[in-house]
Amino acid sequence: MNNVELKIPPHFKPDKVGDFWRVEYQKRAIDARKWANEKNIKPSSSDKFKICLLAVDMQNTFCLPDFELFVSGRSGNGAVDDAKRLCEFIYSNLNVITEIVPTMDTHQPLQIFHSIFLVNNNGESPQPLSLISFEDVKNGIWEINENVCNYLGIDSMQAQNYLKHYTEELSKSGKYDLTIWPYHAMLGSIGYALVSSFEEAIFFHSIARYTQPDVQLKGNNPLTEHYSVFGPEVKHGINGEKIANKNTQLIERLLNFDAIVIAGQAKSHCVAWTIQDFLQEINSRDKKLAEKVYLLEDCTSSVVVPKVIDYTDEADKAFKKFAEAGMHIVKSTIPIKDWPDIKT
Predict the structure, then answer these.
(1) Least crowded by CB within 10 Å, which of 110, 127, 195, 203?
(2) In degrees, to the nearest 5, what angle opens at C-alpha 264 toward C-alphas 258 and 269?
(3) The whole model's pTM is what?
(4) Which of 194, 243, 199 is nearest to 220 (CA)?
(5) Beta partners for 294?
(6) How far is it, in rounded angstroms, from Cα 149 to Cα 138?
């Protein structure tokens, strides 16, 4: 491993992380090749110890204050500060990060966690951030909107039975109740795009190290939530029929790396469930594989809506469990070469 600690390239502007803007690709490509030559940064194909950064849902919709589902954390500026640290982490460790895998939450209007999907007896849809429990559905408080059923081509009675099955499965698995989220990460929207500073950092890394980002899309199935990049919250219907697949291909790719670094948004939801699914897969193979995983705790924040909901404690409890399983909790400000179990 290259032990040289890198400085932050001059083009990076920390005060612009909270804004969206157009990345100047050609200019940045020239800068990246010049930077690589000056700093003697080798192509990623020459890495003997291979490191992957799995960056979960670093999109405008979660990371910028003016967008739909800004992850503020308890600080009020969580995702912006996280994005700044994550960009600096990429630049500081440009010479040792082999590949970056960004995930992208990918939604359209008619999905089970959006208001339009459900109605009550008065034909009213639930408000954003409402929690829909199995008891609510069993007692007939909420049912699937018949107009949505017509579009999806499913019988309304079957749809209601599915909603009951779905919320019951969430309850039995110990996962969050069905959450009605604000419309967010809408495919093709500005909110869907990666945060500009983060996108620029990925592009710079690609050109400097002759590597390609492996962008992973998730969340476009209308019948299930999809917090984890590795699979949806509910995979099977009432009769055991498959409604969505586990991303086994990505799991295999990640486990081929010598170290997997995980960061992104939100710590309490997509990050936590991604790590949980990964840990479950690891435990089914060899528990020692957990020691290959590093969690950038200062590059992720929890969903907090003041006076409404705060998932910080649940997220911290999950990270404690991950650490007890053998995963490493690390800070982005510590060079990768100084992390435990990194072979320099």
Answers:
(1) 127
(2) 110
(3) 0.94
(4) 243
(5) 261, 328
(6) 19
Express each pLDDT in 296-342 by its tens digit. 999 999 999 888 889 999 999 999 999 999 999 999 999 999 999 88
Tokens of 164: 């009951």
Closest CA to 205 of 91, 88, 40: 91
Backbone angles phi, psi at 295, to 5 degrees: -105, 115
Helices and strands (H, E) in the chain, number of each type: 10, 12
Q: DSSP characters for 247-282?
A: -HHHHHHHHTSSEEEEEES-IIIIIHHHHHHHHHHH
Burial class (CB in 10 A: 0-12, 13-18, 19+), 187: middle
Q: Per-residue pLDDT tens for 14-68?
A: 999 999 999 999 999 999 999 999 999 999 999 999 999 999 999 999 999 999 9
Q: What is the DSSP string of 130-170?
A: -EE-HHHHHTTS-EE-HHHHHHHT--HHHHHHHHHHHHHHH
Q: Distances in Å between the alpha carbon of 276 and those of 173, 224, 292?
A: 12, 18, 15
* Cα–Cα distance for residue pair 319/279, rounded to 1 Å: 11
Question: Which CATH architecture fits 14-107+184-338?
Answer: 3-Layer(aba) Sandwich (3.40)
Closest CA to 340 of 332, 312, 327: 327
Domain range list for the chain: 14-107+184-338, 115-179
